[in-house]
Amino acid sequence: MIVRRYRIGLGKLPSAFHGYKLLFLTDLHGCVTPLLSERIAAEKPDAILIGGDMMVGFLEKEKLEKTRMPEAEALISRLAKHYRVFYAYGNHEGKTMPEAMAAYRSRLEAGGVCFLEDKTAVLIREGQRLMLHGLCLEQVWYPKGKRLQYPLSELIRKLHSYPKKQPDGLCHILLAHHPNYFSTYEAWGADLVLSGHFHGGVMRLPGIGGVIGPDYLLFPPYSGGLYEGKQGARMIVSCGLGVHTPKLRIFNPPELTSITLYQTKQ
Of the four, 117, 169, 194, 263, which is 20 to 30 A from 106 by CA? Predict the structure, then answer.
């Protein structure tokens, strides 16, 4: 496992959040190791953001024991005792048995975890606000064998706002599991997007990046790393912490993503 660290300058970041550290966990798929908890503690984050796919999703009751939900829940419960934890859904949360997912969520919420299922949380520090949004994509937006364009109108409908049309000067961070819709996220008004889903492209090649995504398409455009949009938004795509299908990582170690924010002049 590696800790990949980023320093991200944001012009609209409130001064109270200068130096604020976020730890981003995604695509765990229940692959919890003792080393993970140690690495998280060593980073001393101000908040932990979860980008989804913490378990393996199944809709069949007979496969419930294969979801690895207890492993994910135990880890997140421990983290919530020490840190602020915000949780956005991935595609596997969306295809987990509804009753099992509801119970999992209820227990975590009771322990203090804030779920961002098409919702917004406001982080407040010294009276200043930082906006944190979580987008929950339906399964249709995770196609196999083709790439779609997520409509801006749908994103506006789900999150009930359009930051670029609001002269509030606020800084907007968006947790959105699928990175391929980055242009839509930027058009909506995200200053920083945090994504995962592609597991780093399973195998990574120097100068090329990830080889294949869960959509079975070669050389995904956003397989892992830092990307900049046409209007200056940034997106960090984590290579993720676990394995699912295939259960393989080549030149692609599990990744814990650490992000330190700092204020820049606009």
Answer: 194
- 164 pLDDT tier (thresholds 50, 70, 90): confident
Number of Cβ within 10 Å of residue 213's Cβ equals: 24
Residue 195: both structure tokens together: 């994504």
Please provide the distance, in angstroms rounded to a whole number, between the alpha carbons at the two ends of the chain. Answer: 36
C-alpha to C-alpha distance for 241 and 195, rounded to whole angstroms: 13
Burial of 190 (0-12, 13-18, 19+ CB in 10 A): buried
C-alpha to C-alpha distances, 238 to 25, 50, 68, 103, 263, nearest whole angstrom: 8, 11, 21, 27, 22
Q: What are the residues whose beta carbons fall under 8 Å from the beta carbon of 108, sequence distance 6 or more? A: 73, 76, 77, 80, 87, 115
Give the number of domains in the chain: 1
The region, left, alpha or beta by phi > 0 then psi within -120 to 50, assigned to residue 207 is left
Compute and round to an integer the Cα radius of gyration of the chain.
Answer: 17
Band (78; pLDDT cuts 50, 70, 90): very high
Instruction: Give residue 18's identity as a one-letter amino acid code.
Output: H
Of 33, 10, 32, which is closest to residue 22 (Cα–Cα)?
A: 10
| pLDDT tens-digit series, residues 106-127 | 999 999 999 999 999 999 999 9
How many other CB atoms are there within 10 angstroms of residue 61's CB atom?
Answer: 10
Q: Which residues pair with 225 in a beta bridge?
A: 237
Please tell me whether the overall predicted TM-score, pTM, comes out greater than 0.90 for this model.
yes
Q: Which domain holds residue 72?
A: 2-263
The amino acid at 253: P
For 128-148, what is each residue's pLDDT tens digit? 999 999 999 999 999 999 999
